[in-house]
């Protein structure tokens, strides 16, 4: 069993930065592919960044490439999302998620574990 808790969201002006953290409980955290999803009002939940069990495999949505960086520290059971050059269209609730097997996937229902979400609001 894995429990996930996000932190680090907030209100920032366009062009600013935020760093999200996802703290995980569970001894097998290091084996799970994980990702950061976001959901804006009226839109579907989308994967913005994913990471394999090591830091060598990552995925970024085209809309965030070059601005967001995903990483994980398995010794600390924590995953991070560094967000730079934020835009108003990045405004959404951000969720961290983990799946027990397989690889990074853009399909949200493949992830068995979810955090409660953290709000990111970017003002213009």
Structure described in brief:
The protein is 0% helix and 48% strand. The chain has strands at 3-7, 10-13, 18-25, 34-39, 46-51, 58-60, 68-73, 78-83, 92-98, 113-114, 118-123.
Written description of the protein model:
It contains no helices and 11 strands. The chain is mostly beta strands and 124 residues long. Strands 2, 4, 5, 6, 9, 10 and 11 form a 7-stranded mixed sheet that branches. A 4-stranded antiparallel sheet has the order 1-3-8-7, with no helix packed on it. Strand 7 and strand 8 form a beta hairpin.
β-strand percent reads over 45%
Low-confidence stretches: none
**Shape verdict:** globular
Query: Helix content range of the residues, please?
Result: under 10%
Q: How far is it from the N-terminal to the C-terminal residue, by CA? A: 40 Å
For the report, how would you describe the main beta sheet? 7 strands, mixed
The radius of gyration over CA amounts to: 13 Å
Structural class: mainly beta
* DSSP strand tally: 11
> Helical stretch count?
0
Whole-number average pLDDT? 94
Order of helices and strands: EEEEEEEEEEE
Topology, please?
Layout lengths: L2 E5 L2 E4 L4 E8 L8 E6 L6 E6 L6 E3 L7 E6 L4 E6 L8 E7 L14 E2 L3 E6 L1
Salient structural properties:
mainly beta; 4-stranded antiparallel beta sheet; 124 residues; single chain; 11 strands; 7-stranded mixed beta sheet
């Amino acid at each position: 069993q894995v429990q996930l808790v996000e932190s680090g969201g907030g209100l920032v002006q366009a062009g600013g930065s935020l760093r999200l953290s996802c703290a995980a409980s569970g001894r097998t955290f290091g084996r799970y592919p994980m990702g950061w999803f976001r959901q804006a009002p009226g839109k579907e939940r989308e994967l913005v960044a994913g990471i394999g069990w090591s830091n060598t495999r990552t995925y970024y949505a085209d809309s965030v490439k070059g601005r967001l960086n995903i990483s994980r520290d398995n010794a600390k059971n924590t995953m991070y999302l560094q967000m730079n050059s934020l835009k108003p269209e990045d405004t959404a609730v951000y969720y961290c998620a983990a799946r027990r097997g397989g690889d990074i996937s853009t399909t949200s229902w493949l992830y068995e574990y979810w955090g409660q979400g953290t709000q990111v609001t970017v003002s213009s």
